[in-house]
C-alpha cells in the first residue's frame, strides 16, 4: 500500500478490525475462484455479482472503474491510459490486462476475482488467459447470463424513474398507482434514454456481435455455465451456486 493511502491500524476501531479478521478466517476455507460474468444490459449481473463476491470472498473487478482509479492514482499504467484517452484513442487491451494483473495482487483479491465487462472480444480473452497462465492461474468459470432479447426488452423498456427521488417503477412488474406519475409526489415519471427500445436494440446487436466469439472460446474449454437469467433473482442465485459448486 502506498504511504499516501496507508491506514494506521491503531486508528481503526477494534470492532472493525475483529470483523475483518473474522471475515478473512471465514474466507480462508473458501476455494479460489476466478470468474467472468457475461450478459447483456438488464440480465441481472449487477444483482448477482455482490452476492457471489460475498459468498466466495472474491474481489469485483469492473474494468471501467479500475481504469479510472489507475488514472486518478497516476500509476504507470494509469498515466499511459490517460495518454491514450487524451488523444481520443481506445485504451489498449494490453494496458487493461496489465491493470487487471495489478489489481489481482491486492489482499481483497487473494481468493480470486469476478471480472465484469471484460473480456468483450476474443483477443481480450486470449490476452487475459496468457497473463493468468504466466502466474500458473486460469479462469475457473464463465457465467453466461443467457436471456431472450424479447424478455430483456420487456424488462428494460418498462422501466420508469422519478428523477428527483430516484424511485423506480416498471409498467408490468412494479407499476405506479397512476400510469406515468410518481406515487408519492404525483410528478411525472421519465424514461432513461438508454432504456428505450431503439437504443436497447442497437446495444444488444453490438453485445451479441462482440461477445458470442468470447462465449464460444470459453465453451470449447468447457468453462461456460449458461444461467437462465429470465428467472426471478432468487432462482438465478440458486443456479449460480449450482454452477460454482460443480
TrEMBL record:
Signal peptide: none annotated. It comes from Trapa natans (Water chestnut). GO terms for molecular function: AMP kinase activity; ATP binding. Belongs to the adenylate kinase family. Monomer. This is adenylate kinase. It catalyses: AMP + ATP = 2 ADP. NCBIfam families: adk, PRK00279.1-2, PRK00279.1-3. Transmembrane segments: none annotated.
